[in-house]
Each structure stands twice: as structure tokens, then as C-alpha cells.
Design goal:
The chain has 30 helices and 40 strands. It is α+β, with helices and mostly antiparallel strands. An eight-stranded mixed sheet has the order 12-13-16-23-20-19-18-21, with no helix packed on it.
Amino acid sequence: MSTYWQAALAAHWGIEADLTRLDGEYDLNFLARSEGQDYVLKVMRAGCEAEFVALQCEAFAHIAAKAPALPVPTVVKTSSGEAFARLVDAAGAARLVWLLTKCEGRVYAEMRPKTQSLLGDVGAKLGTMDRALADFTHPALARDFKWNLMQAAWIGEALDVIEPPQRRALLGGILAEYEAILPQLAALPQVAIHNDLNDYNILVSGSLQQPPHVTGLIDLGDLCASPRICDLAIACAYLVLDQEAPEQALAAAVAGYHAAYPLSGPELDLLWPLLRMRLAVSVVNSTLMAKDAPDDPYVVISQAPAWAFLEREVEEAGLLRARLRAACGLPVVEAAPRVMAWIESERGNFAPLFGEDLSAAPMGSLSVETSASPVNPFDLPLEEAAVIGTEYDIEGGIWLGYYNEPRLIYTAPFFRRGPWKASSRRTVHIAVDGFAAAQTKIYAPLEGRVHVVEYRPAHLDYGGVVILEHTTPAGDRFYTLYGHLNPEICERLTVGQTVAKGALLAHLGDKSQSGGWAPHVHFQLALTTEGMGGDWPGVADPDEMYLWGAVCPNPAALLNLPDAKTGYVTRDKAEVHHGRQAHFAPNLKLSYADPVMFLRGWKHHLFDEWGRPYLDAYNNVPHVGHAHPRIQAVAADQLKRMNSNTRYLHPAQIAFAEKITAKMPAGLEVCYFVNSGSEANELALRLARAATGGRDMITPDHGYHGNTTGAIDISAYKFNAKGGVGKPDWVELVDVADDYRGRYRRDDPMRAQHYAAEVGEAVARIAARGGKLAGFIAETFPSVGGQIIPPDGYLPAVYEHIRAAGGLCIADEVQTGLGRLGAYYFGFEQQGVEPDIVVLGKPIGNGHPIGVVVTRAAIAQAFAQGPEYFSTFGGSTLSCRIGAEVLDIVEDEGLMEAACVMGERLMSGLRALQGKYDVIGDVRGCGLFVGVDLVCDAQARTPASALAEYVKNRMRAHRILLGCEGPFDNILKIRPPLTIDEEGIDMILAKLDEVLGEAESLSA
């Protein structure tokens, strides 16, 4: 068959091409591959009317003329200049044949990730198409067929085929909603629309470096005349399927459409019932088809996503209408501008909420940036909730809490919006708080009717709450909410009761009456309650403030206050970034394509300026977790006393030294306290030289030991980097003992000895040039080298070479020490060696600047023959107490054991992913020191650097912090604080699975 039409293509279009059959329900479609251009040859079914083909050809031409940048196919005319040819097929039947250029890309249904930006792009491209088609006319647009949403009521007579009865009832309800809006729909202009922009008629391109974007809108086979909102509803019906957050997906697509082709509020209000009606038509139609083709399983399978969406719990229709309006920058209800104008006109005339002028009332901030409450941002116990904000208390006075303020005090499960601690959560306060003594009287600012009155005693809930409904002189309604009240209101007020302006409304509840909070009133304005009922959210997700800021604007006017007084202004990340660029050097780099700004931390989570939580799977410095209360307490306690240096005796210095040396092999008993790992490695270098009289050092390639001059000299990661100074003549490099991609691999049983032999060769080179060896320094497990676990026997053989040549062995344990490895307190224990010098760094201070060098007495004695050694803040009393506390916490909380258990869980999950994704070349690690080597080719082990960068940034988008390391930056580095739990490990694995699936899709 394809040969026949291949000849027809050459004869009538003059194009020589290879044809491949494409899917088609009624017609023959072929992909025609020609040199330099691909086409789609469409052979219409026998009996197809010429007017139908002409309609599509003219529509494509019209779109190209009106929106030349829009990615749609172009009709290729025949050699005689016709839009289509009238040909005869091999069986003698007449066929209409036409040719289109092929748009690049893959069908949307098969593309991942389906990001908010991609959804917005789909909406924008459809809006551009509809705007182009707005003045297109053709007699064939008036079509009577089942897919015209204006004629969708036909399913009413076919609902009997739907089983079970619950589903039939669901579709009946959708049909009733649709019939209710038909008069409004019929009043809208009937214009040309695509009418079937489903997920197989949208083409998308993207790569690891380029976000997915629309590259084609195809198939005008269902083109008809209908209101444009039907076109958007049809497209959105497919865009929301399989979305975790369909409401946000819908808003993104609608906002994109509106930006290209502005909609009205009344049009938007029709979208949701039309979307559901399209899916109802789809499932009824496929059920009818299944009756005709009972052996075709695809017919039933294709229904599954539609049923899953129709049966899932989604936002109430009224709130969804407000969401879509807000996403487009339109009033959430038609009356909203009038209500706000009236409130503004009355600013200054409302009765005082507390019975007194609040102009001089101070503001107190509970924001992420300014407040350290709560101690644990995931758990606010009653005793802490009861004193939140008491630092601002004024005896007998009133202070106010901000509107639009991101706070971490909302810790109850109902504030979280996903399964993980790092899932989105509601943090932004959308009311004004008034703090005063319990039982303080609250008055109605204006007349209202009681809409809701109830007592909600749950922990961190409203306690006593009243919602009043108000009506402006123009007849527009709005609402105010008063929370955390004495529940006596439930006895005194009834729904429907009128409360006069200035009348006593309630009393502030005490902590036993207010949901556990310190006494205050939560005062909130809402321009609609549609879809909310009586369960108003008083706090919003920062990523949904476009909605909740519009539904619940700043109520300052009702308090007779200026908006600027009560409106919190969150720190602008872009402004901070600009300041950093102005005051810091450009080689001080930020992580991630979209940098993050963190203001709080707790255990293995960090919080940005809006209170968004992130799982920290990268930072090893907070060894025992961010913001550990015991470290806070020790630091505060010591700073109340003194902070001095090692020129004076202090028991904290001895206690710290004894705790460290108790973990060391016998003989490692002398400690030097410094301020960083860099300073510690520099000191280790001096010790080795003093003890041996040598100067030369041997170190593995791509190692990193700090940023001081001496440390950089032994850090190939730095001196060989772009702009680096190169290797000093007294340094010899050897290969990293990488048995995955190094020269000696796991199939070589002597790989450890081969790598160690390079050290012997380096010793020989030093001797040959007349140098003298001082020692060997290495990260026990190279971290920047790629999270390498050296093969067993490597360091014993290395140390033998070094000691035979009179050198010392230095173990840089900054990355691996203090229990991170789970089964071992130090990395050198895993290798079965005893170093001469051990270096510890930042994790021992959990963020406080501490470094430690531990060595043998004889080495220390040799160093002491030189000038006095002193570091002003190295070994300060504060540092010693913090360091000792970190070591105690590791023991007391069983963090080394936890690292072993969590590391095994992580490694097991990663190996399962390795079996699923060929791009995972290697999974290696010990405890919570883990690397994932990403490759383009599993056999060649080609480093997948672009993939690693993609994964790192997409994991950040999923609120997980990872890093990339290795000579090619293709190793995912996972080294979380030791507090990480099962949930954290499982989130890493789940999201990494998702992101690798995205990458697979983008690379297909």
C-alpha cells in the first residue's frame, strides 16, 4: 500500500520520500521522509466530502497568515497548485489526498515532565490559534456531530450503558450542570475552534538543557463553530489527567490562554462544567464503542484516566471559578471591585474592632525571617503555641500580627499539602491578628448577619469562630471572620442573627478555648465563600497567593488602618541576589539554576523565605541536624559566660580533646584545635614536614583539602581547575582509587594493589628528582572525586609505601568521620589502617567553625621545636563546648547506628532504581556517604554530566537538595544530616525515580 501512495506523492507533488504508516481512526496517514523535510500524507476515507478537506486546508492557511509564528503544519500544494488531489486508490476507489509539513516533537501524552510552564505554553498556543481563527468563516463549520460540546446533551439518552449506578449518577450530575449553563453558552459568539486539542494533537519538544515546550498543534479534523471557551475546556480536559494537582495545572493552562487571548470572567465560569462534560462524552462514547467491539481491551483502558479524574476529590466548583479568575488577574467574583471600592470609601468610619483606635498599636512579626518560633517547624506543642508572640506582649495593650506573613507555626497535618514533610504547606497568614489579654472584648466593625458560628477545639484550630456576612449599599456581599474566640459565642449568637455595627461580638478566648494559641483574634476578610463553606483557610500556600490574596485581601481598611501598616513585605530573593552580586566575587558560586534562599532549618530540612520546606540530602556540615536544641543551649550558655582562647586553661578544652582521642587508635593523643578543615589540613602539612624534614607530598588526583594557599597546593580539584595555578613541583599526583571508571576496575582482584603501586612510583619520582617525602594525604573516601569507596586493601598498601620511604600518612576525615559511615566511626577504620595524622572539619561543629588535627606525641614534639603555634579562635571555649556536644549527640541519639540503617535503606532503593534505569552506571557508598554515577552509555561508562545537572535542578524543584561531584560532575552526591529518617529516604527515592523517568522521556 505504501508503495502505491509513494508513487502518488512523487507524481502529484514531485516529492520522493519513504512512507511509514501512522495511526488513524478513519483515514490513511503516512509519515513521508524526504531529504531535508518530513511530511504527513493524508489519504482520506472513501466518500469523504471535498468540503471537509477544503475546510481544514483553508483553516491552516488562515492560521498561518494570522499567526505565522504558531507551530502548525503547512499545507503543501500539489504540483498543479491545488490544496489537495483527487486520486484513485489501488482498488479503484476515489480518494482525496493532501500533504502537510510535519511539525517536530513528540505527542504531549508521552512527554514528561508536564511542568507548569509547559501547561502555560499549551494554553498560550491554543489561545493564539483561537485568536487567529476568530474571523475565519466557512460553510462546513456548522457541523452536527457528537464531539461538538454545544450538542453534548446526547449522552443523556445513552447513560443506561454506564455501570455501576454510582458512575451513572455521577455523569447524570455532570449533564445537569451542563444543561444549566447552556443558555449562557448559547449567548456567546460561535467561532471556529480546533475542538479536539487532546494530548495526542499537541506536539512537544525538550531536552535536558531545554525545558519542554510546544512545537506543534495538529489535526483540524474536528474543527467546528462553537464558543471559544469550549476549545479551552476540551484541551484542559486532557491536560488535567494524571496531574497530582489538577487545580494548579488547570490554572496554569488557563492563564497561558488568557495571556494570548483574554477571556472574560463569565466565560471562565463556564469552563469547569464544560471540561467535565467533555470527559463525560468521552467515557460514554468509549462505552458504546466497547459494546460494538467487546474484544478490544484498549477501549476500556482508554477510559481509565478520565474516570480516575471524574471520581477524584477536587476543589469545589465555586472556589475553582475563583482560582481561574485569579490566575487570569480577573476579579474572583464580579462584585469584588465594587466591594473593595466601598470598603476603601469607608476606611476610617468602621467601628473599632477592640473598641479603641489601633493606629498606634505596634506590629509584631512571626515571620520565617524574624521569628525562631516554633522550635520544631513540624511540631508545635500546646505549651509552645500558648506563648507564641508573647515577646511582643504589652501589659494591658494590644499588638497586631501581619497579613501576608509567611510563618512556620502552622505545623498541624491539615496545613500540609502532600505526603512528605518537604511537601508544600500552608504558611502565609491571610488575616490580621490582634493580640490582647484573654476575654478582651471584640466589636463588630460594621453591621453583619451571622453566617457561621461554631467551636473548633482541635489543636491549632480556630477555637471559637464567627463569620459575618455583610451587604454594601449596592447589594454586594462580602464576609469577615473572627477566630480564636471564647466559645460562649455559640450560646449567644445564632446563624441569621444580625449584629449591629459597634455591637459586642465576642471575647478573646484563653489558650484552652482558642485552639491552643495565645489569646488573639484572627481577623480576615473574604470577597466570596463559594466553595469554602464555613471552613475558611486562614493560612495559604505561598504558591497559591495569587488566589488567596485575591479572595482574602488585606483587611486593614476595616480596622481603619493603612494597608502598609499591616501588610508584611517578604524579603525579595531577587533583591538579595542582586546585593550578593554587587558585594561578592563572581567565583563565589550559588547552587542550582534557580538559587534558593534559606532562613530556617530543622534536622534535615531547610525553609526558604516563604516557609517552603526542603529536604536537605546534601549538607554534611549540620552533622547532627540543623538548629539542634542542645547546641543552641550550649552556645547560649557559654556566650553568657565567656569565650576565650587556648592561652588560658579551661576544662572544656580538655573535655573536648578527651572525647576526640577516645575515638582514635592508641597513640593518636595530641590535639590541635583550629577554625576550619582548610586550616587543619594546612597544619597537618606543617606537622608532616616538621616530623620528617621532607617537603614533598603525594595525593590522589581531583582531591580537595581546603582553600588556603597550602591546602590548594595539595588539592588537584582546585589547582587543576580552570584558572588554577597548576601542580606545584613538590606535589605528586596518583590516580583516585576508583574501581568503577578508573584504570583498574572491579573485575581485577588486584586493583587495590595496582592503585597503591602508583604511590610507590610517585615515591620513586620524588627520590629521582632529589626531593624528600613528607607524606601522603587523602580524603579517606574521596568526595569531590566522586564519592569513591576505595577497594579493600588500598590504604594498607599505600601506607606501607609511604612509611617505607620515611613519610607520614594523613587521613582527611572531614567528609567521612564522626559516624557518617554507619558501620565505622572513621573512614580509615573501614580500610583497616592507623594514620599518623587525622584531620576533622566542619561537621564536628555542626556549622560552628571548628577544625581538629589529631596526631602522635612524637610528631607534635617535632613540630614544637619550631615557633609557637597559636590560633586565636581555634580551641575557643565556645568551640570546644560545641564540638564536645556534637560528639555527645552522635552517641546519645544513636546517629551512627541510624546512618547505618538509613544508608542501607537508601542504597537498596538506589540499586532498585539502577535496575530500572540504564543511566545509573554505579551506586556506591557507605552509611550516609553515597554517590550515584550517571552515564550516557552503560558499557562505555560515558559520564552523563548534563543528566546529573538536570537531576540536581529537578530534585531541587521537588524540594530535595542534592549535589553533583566528580571530575565530570556526573556523580549525584547524597550526604544528608545524620537525622534523616525513613520518610526522608523514601522521598529521595520516589522523586529520583520520577525525575529519572522525566529525563528518560526527554532523551527518547
